[in-house]
Design a protein that fits this description.
Oligomer: single chain
Order of helices and strands: HHHEEEEHEHEHEHH
Helix content: 40-55%
Number of domains: 2
Number of helices: 8
Bound molecules: zinc ion
Number of strands: 7
CATH superfamily of the largest domain: GTP cyclohydrolase I, C-terminal domain/NADPH-dependent 7-cyano-7-deazaguanine reductase, N-terminal domain
Structural class: alpha+beta
Shape: globular
């Protein structure tokens, strides 16, 4: 069970990587640098930074990038995960439905807004329910393509749970298709990564896909 930083780094190294370069820049330094560059972008666009509504925008954007939208680029923000031994011998699928996905498309730096259905069939380990949401959130907080995001969540769960019986399905709206380009406000993109029994066994696959396609009834 990864509890310390070293263990977490080891685990994250095995997850499909986001193309990154090593940097020793601290979060504060990143905010300072990005704010300076964003100020330039705004000036190039012809905005008057002396205006009191605009003057704090560069720093606001920089903080939002580093501490919120792209916090998942910092491995230290990986959530504290506890897995417990599956003493109850639970052997059916556990499904987290309607997991909110809020990410940023790495091609245009605009919002990807979606929801995921994430499932696994435990072998030796069971994971706290909210941890599934936290893992999805961690990888969402990076510039992403939906295909990679789907795989990263599945890789991470497979490693933590020590079973390949995991499945991830994401349906999302890409605002780079809504606000620009084809300007299609209705289309969504679906990706999935079904592994182990979810891939092999038609009835397990069907049960999972049924969860993906049906609305949550309780709320
Ligand atoms: Zn895009």
């Amino acid at each position: 069970m990864p509890t310390d930083r070293k263990e977490i780094r080891k685990l994250l190294k095995k997850v499909r990587p986001t193309p990154r370069i090593e940097t020793s820049t601290t979060s504060e330094q990143k905010v300072d640098k990005i704010a300076k560059h964003f100020e330039e972008i705004m000036k190039i666009l012809g905005l008057d930074l002396r205006n009191d509504s605009l003057q704090d925008t560069p720093r606001r954007v920089a903080k939002m990038y580093v501490n919120e939208l792209f916090s998942g680029l910092n491995d230290n923000t990986f959530p504290k995960i506890t897995t417990i031994d599956n003493e109850m011998k639970y052997d059916q699928m556990i499904v987290a439905r309607n997991v909110g996905i809020m990410s940023v498309c790495e091609h245009h730096f605009v919002t990807i807004d979606g929801r995921a259905t994430i499932a696994y069939i435990p072998s030796k380990k069971v994971i706290g329910l909210s941890k599934i949401n936290r893992i999805a959130k961690f990888f969402s907080r990076r510039p992403q393509v939906q295909e990679r995001l789907t795989k990263q969540i599945a890789d991470c769960l497979e490693l933590l749970l020590e079973t390949d019986n995991v499945a991830v399905h994401i349906e999302a709206k890409h605002y780079c298709l809504v606000s620009r380009g084809v300007e299609d406000t209705l289309s969504t993109t679906v990706t999935s990564d079904l592994r182990g029994d979810f891939k092999r066994l038609p009835h397990t696959r069907a049960e999972f896909m049924n969860h993906c396609h049906s609305e949550a009834k309780m709320f």
